[in-house]
Design goal:
The chain is α/β, with parallel strands linked by helices. The structure holds adenosine-5'-diphosphate (ADP) and magnesium ion (MG). Magnesium ion binds next to α1.
Length: about 240
């Protein structure tokens, strides 16, 4: 469904060049929950940004359903980012002044005419409320981000990412800022969404425990994929210690 072909990306600042992706190939299959692991600085976020057209490669291409998306005009990439992809980040990126409900509604506010928005806002609001209930936050709709825990903020960010009914969720270290327990809840939620809604998920992590909840794991070293295996099945999502 989503293919990276021979991606190269080098960051340049003054005379310093940092080659990050050096000819990377990856195929994401429809409906799978894929995890990407690799050391800090190995280029995982860079790859995710290129897959989601948040940034462009120096060379190589990104294909969605067989069509190139990395070189589309800006407005078409904007539509893809709004409708086809949903993004989840380590630090949630919620707007502090808005309620959780309004944060979830944000993707629908933008990229619609004001008229359209007013005509359809009741349906959007209903969908946002349903999604907040879906992620277990039906009682938190009118709270603001600072009143919530990290896990609750990330669940809100997941609801926001789902609002436009995307085909692919791109999650960059979604549990990186959470304790083990709330991180586990986030990954189980993503797992359920993947199974029940059929949304394809690409998740970057350097936490090897949580990859066991996914279908397949690829490892990045030196700017390319070096390993591609079914995810191990043993530790997660079962609790690690049996109750005594
Ligand atoms: P990861 O997510 O695996 O930790 P990144 O993709 O964030 O890795 O970064 C890969 C390398 O590229 C790192 O060495 C990082 O410092 C560098 N890098 C990332 N973004 C930029 C940027 N905008 N400008 C310059 N260097 C960058
Ligand atoms: Mg990163």
């Amino acid at each position: 469904m989503l293919i990276a072909q021979n991606l190269c990306k080098t960051y340049r600042r003054h005379a310093v060049q940092v080659p990050v992706l050096t000819g990377l190939n990856l195929e994401v299959r429809t409906g799978e929950f894929l995890s990407i692991v690799g050391a800090s600085g190995s280029g995982k976020s860079t790859l995710l940004h290129l897959l989601g057209t948040l940034d462009a490669p120096d060379s190589g291409s990104v294909l969605l359903d067989g069509k190139r998306i990395d070189n589309l005009p800006a407005d078409q990439r904007g539509d893809l980012r709004n409708r086809t992809f949903g993004y989840i980040f380590q630090f949630y990126h919620l707007l502090p002044e808005l309620t959780m409900l309004d944060n979830v509604l944000m993707p629908a506010y933008i990229r619609q005419s004001l008229f359209n928005w007013w005509a359809t806002r009741g349906q959007w609001r209903q969908r946002a409320e349903d999604l907040l209930k879906r992620v277990g936050l039906g009682h938190r709709m009118t709270h603001r981000p600072r009143e919530l825990s990290g896990g609750e903020m990330q669940r809100t960010a997941i609801a926001r990412a789902l609002l436009m009914n995307p085909r692919v969720l791109l999650a960059d270290e979604p549990t990186g800022n959470l304790d083990v327990e709330s991180g586990g809840e986030i990954v189980r939620l993503l797992r359920d969404i993947n199974r029940e809604e059929g949304v394809t998920i690409v998740m970057v992590t350097h936490n090897l425990d949580i990859v066991a909840a996914t279908d397949r794991v690829v490892r990045m070293v030196g700017g390319v994929i070096t390993e591609d295996t079914p995810a191990p099945r043993h530790v997660f999502p079962q609790p690690r210690l049996a109750a005594v």
